[in-house]
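Hi support team,

I'm filing this because I wasn't sure whether my run with S-adenosylmethionine finished correctly. The job status page said complete, but I'd like someone to confirm that the output block is well-formed before I use it downstream. Pasting the exact inputs I used:
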Amino acid sequence: MTQTNPLDAIGATIEEPVLLPWSGRRFTITRPAGIDDLLDRAELDPEQNLPYFAEIWPSGTALADLLIEQSEYVANRRTLEVGCGLGITAVAAVASGARLTITDYFPESLALAGKNLRAAGGASVEARQLNWRDEASITALLDGGPFPIVLAADVLYESRDIAPLLTFFDRVLAPGGTLILAEPGRPVAARFLEQAATSGWDTGEIARHSGPWPDPKDANVTVGIHTLRKFRVPGSEFRVQS
Ligand SMILES: C[S@@+](CC[C@H](N)C(=O)[O-])C[C@H]1O[C@@H](n2cnc3c(N)ncnc32)[C@H](O)[C@@H]1O
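And here is everything the job wrote out:
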């Protein structure tokens, strides 16, 4: 049986220079030139997921910038990125020394993120297709154990994902681990943070980033970057893993 290469299905691409505003670091990110074909194919998707992976988003850019500025969050740590999109956060995480696993629902996202990581010349990463709403997919991801650091940029935009993502993050984080969540002020993300706080998560905003962003239409977007840690019962195991 012949395997189709997800990059073939994407069609024409554009190489876009991206400047990270705080650190001044520059990356080149390859993205689809248009999304019409991807949208046509998304109509057949059983989960009705749209190809949001194809854009460069402020949250992924902000989280990339934070990781370049504060590499201690990921340096030499087993790190999971959820919903990696084009891989801009992944490129920064690897540049800062993360031992990274990238995940996304779309194989095209993983293929493009892999291409962008190779172009940046960083260490190789593991890439896993994942549906965070699907139990079998989560179990397969955990075959190497849970992760001390989980990165997620702009993954909370649909109400249906609040409960599944709370469960997912709880399962994939190692005891004492930290989720770093970047979000551009969407109401769904605010509700997620409220529900996390009332269900045993210690949440705190560590930074706010106002760009400027690669796409001028995002000029008014401010990204909040939060850390989330799950409270453990006193006396239960609590140790930071690397
Ligand atoms: C708005 S994009 C953000 C992409 C990237 N993190 C960024 O900030 O540039 C959301 C990402 O989550 C992925 N995603 C959506 N639903 C998913 C699911 N159920 N399981 C895994 N990934 C999913 C999308 O394919 C997309 O790459």
